[in-house]
Amino acid sequence: MSTPKQNRGKLAILAAGGTGGHLFPAHALANELQNYDIALALITDRRAAGIKGALANIDVHRISASGISGRNVFRRIIATLNLAIGFLEATLLLWRLKPDVVIGFGSYASVPTVAAAAFLGFRTIIHEQNAILGRANRFLAPGVTRIATAFEFAANLRAKDRQKAIWTGNPVRQEIIALSERPYPQIEAGGTIHILVFGGSQGATVFSEVVPKALALLPEQERQRLRVVQQCREEDIEDVKSKYFDFHITAELSPFFDDIAERISVAHLVICRSGASTLAEIATAGRPAILVPFPHATDDHQTRNAQGLCDAGGGWMIPQDAFTPETLANRLTSLFSIDSTLTSAAKCATKIGMSEAAQKLAKLVMSTLSAEQDNNDKATKGIAA
Questions:
Q1: DSSP conformational letter for 384
Q2: Which of 257, 295, 330, 357 could serve as a FRET partner for 321 with CA atoms 20 to 30 Å apart?
Q3: 8-state DSSP, 88
Q4: What is the CATH number assigned to the segment(s) 176-352?
Q5: Nearest to 111 by CA among 149, 85, 137
Q6: What are phi and psi of 119, to 5 degrees?
Q7: Do 231 and 203 touch, CB atoms closer than 8 A?
Q8: How far apart are CA 156 and CA 131, in angstroms?
C-alpha cells in the first residue's frame, strides 16, 4: 500500500483497557494502521493484561484509572482520585510524546488519556462499540475531534455532537474476518449440530446452570446429535461436566479457548452474551445466536446491542430473567425442527457484519491526520505570506 509522505513521523496513540472487549477493537485498528507509515503506542490502565498481537509490538504505557459506576461512596471517591491521578500522568506523558492523534475505545481506562489529549489541544477520536453511548464516551464526546460508532445510530449522543459522528462499525480481529469468507457449515438431515456457548471474559454461571438442563430436556435422538463447546468458570467446570455426562451429551469445557475463531467457524449456533465485540464477531462470521444480555450492563446497553442482530433476523434474544431450561429447550426444539431455520438466520447475520470496520476506522484516523496536516500547511503559508 502506498503511503503519503506527509504521514511519515506521525504518532497515533491508542487509549484502551479495562476489559478485553475494549482491547479487541484497538488491536484490530493497530493491525490495520501497520499498513500506514505512522508510529503507534498504547496507553492503558495498570490492570490491563494479556496484551497480544499488534498491540504487543508497540510501546505500552500504563496510567492510573478506575471505574466509578456501581460502587459505594467511599470507593467512588477513591476511583475519582485514581482518575485524577491518571489525568495528570497522561498529561505529562502526552506532553512528552506529542502525538498527532489519540484514539480512545471507551471504558474508564481511556478517560484520563483522551481527556488529557483534548486539554492539551491534540486531535482526538473516540470509538463507541455499543448501541448506547457509554458513560466514559458521553463524558468525552463534547471535547473530541471525531466520534466513530459501531452502530448506525448511537443512542445518548447529544445532537450537537452528531455532526462529528462517523459510522465505521466495530473492528474485529483478522482471524474473525477470515471466517466471513467461509460458508456456513451445512447441517445434514439427522447429522451433528455444533453449539458454542460462551459469556464474557470468564464465562457466565447462568449458562452453566441453564444450558445443560435445557439440553437434557430435548428428545434423546436430538441429544445424540449435539456437540457442545462451552466456556465455563473454573469453579463450575466439574459440575457442568458431570451434568453433560449424566445426560449422555458430548461436550468440551474450558475457562478459555485460545482458538475461539476456529470454534466459531464450525458452530451451527452460538449461545452468548451480547457485548459489542461478541456481536461484531458472530455477525462478521455469519453465525446465528441465542443472545442473553447481561442484565447489569450499564444503561442496559447489551439489550440494545442484541436488538440489532435480532431485528436483522440473525438471532433470538432471551432476557436473563426468562432464560430457564424450559424456555431454552423450547427455543432449541423450534430451531432444530427445520434445518433451514439456522441456515437462513446465518445469512441474515452476515447482513449486519462489517468485516471492513477496521479499514474504515483506520481511514478516519488517516483523514484526521490529513486534516491536521492541511491546517499546518495553511498556517505555514500564512506565516510565509
A1: H
A2: 257
A3: H
A4: 3.40.50.2000
A5: 137
A6: -60, -40
A7: yes
A8: 9
Residues paired with 270 in a beta bridge: 196, 289
CATH 3.40.50.2000 domain position(s) in the chain? 5-172+355-384, 176-352
The helix/strand/coil state of 118 is helix
Place of cell 455477525: 283
- Cell numbers 508497540 correspond to 58
- Long-range CB contacts (< 8 A, 24+ apart) of 78-82? 79/108
Q: CATH second-level architecture of 5-172+355-384? A: 3-Layer(aba) Sandwich (3.40)
Kindly give, in sequence order, each residue whose CB lies less than 8 Å from that of residue 147, ignoring residues fewer than 6 positions away: 125, 126, 128, 137, 141, 157, 161, 164, 165, 166
Mean pLDDT, contiguous 10-residue spans, the chain (385 residues): 54 84 86 92 78 80 77 78 94 97 92 97 96 93 97 92 95 92 90 91 82 97 95 94 96 92 96 94 96 91 94 97 98 91 95 93 95 51 36
pLDDT score recorded for residue 141 = 97
Q: Could you give the 3-state DSSP secondary structure of residue 196? A: strand
Residue type, 338: I
Residue in the block written with cell 457509554? 134
Task: Look at the pTM and tell me if it is higher than 0.70.
Answer: yes
Report which of 257, 260, 289 is spatially closest to residue 275, judged by C-alpha positions.
Answer: 289
- Strand 38-45 with 315-317, pairing: unpaired
In angstroms, the CA 208 to CA 159 distance is: 43
Residue 302 has a CB neighbour count (10 Å cut-off) of 27
CB atoms within 10 A of CB 120: 15
Q: Write out the E strands in the chain.
A: 10-15, 38-45, 59-63, 101-104, 124-128, 146-149, 165-167, 193-198, 226-231, 250-254, 269-272, 289-291, 315-317
User: If you ran DSSP here, which 8-state letter would residue 235 be given?
Assistant: G
